Amino acid sequence: MASGESEKGTWLGLCRGEEGDVSVARDLLEHALRGLNAEGGVDKAWIRQAEGWLEELNRNEG
Q1: What is the C-alpha to C-alpha distance for residues 45 and 16, in angstroms, rounded to an integer?
Q2: Residue 1: inside a domain
Q3: First-to-last CA distance in the chain?
Q4: What is the pLDDT of residue 19?
Q5: What are the phi and psi torsion angles at 40 (to 5°)?
Q6: Contact assessment for residue 22 and residue 15, using Cβ atoms and an 8 Å cutoff
């Protein structure tokens, strides 16, 4: 994504409150992380990215 480009419509945009409800984003990310961790064999980069988004969500709300 180019610098300065809107993240609206992306997970990150949702997490940063550009659209939607932050609590919904948190719930979706937590659910996705549980699923990814349960499946095993999932690319760890995806899990780290989702964890990062969840951390950012928590920071922004706090």
Answers
A1: 20
A2: no
A3: 27
A4: 56
A5: 65, 160
A6: yes
Separation in Å, CA 4 to CA 22, 25, 32, 52: 22, 22, 28, 20
Query: Which residues in the chain land under pLDDT 50?
Result: 1-4
Cβ 42 vs Cβ 36: under 8 Å: yes
pLDDT at 31: 80
Counting the structural domains of the chain, the total is: 1
Write out the two tokens for 26.
């948190």
Residue whose pair of structure tokens reads 């992380």 in the numeric block:
33
Q: Which residues, at least 6 apart from 42, have a Cβ–Cβ distance to it below 8 Å?
A: 36
Residue 43 lies in a domain: yes
6 lies in a domain?
no
